[in-house]
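cron nightly-structures :: item 1 of 1
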Amino acid sequence: MKKLFATFALAALMLFAVGTNDAQAQSQQRTNVGQLVSGLINVNVGAVAVNVGDITLEDLVDVNNVLNNNNIEALNNVLNNNQIASNNSNLLNDLLRDANIITDNQVVVGVLSGGLFVIQNLPLP
């Protein structure tokens, strides 16, 4: 039942497209929660691990620049209920932190085409 709900929630969230403001994300005409989660689910983590040295700050997009607050909350809810996306997020977080590309209070919450990683800043403890 949980998987059915998560699948339904993901499908419903794909309907809420939001325009982007970030210069790196402008190549994406419309960005939505479904795209971010789909990119995160389908990312080739092994390829990222091999090419992590080629990732720069320009490859990072702040989630606030591609989604509004309501959709950020929805994205976080989907990530909490989707084991594959959550696992990939954790793997990418570790890879990017080990390469000193993101900080301890940043997490990957999505992946856009072209190898752009959408990150979220978490409050400091």
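cron nightly-structures :: done
Confidence is low (pLDDT under 50) at residues 1-29.
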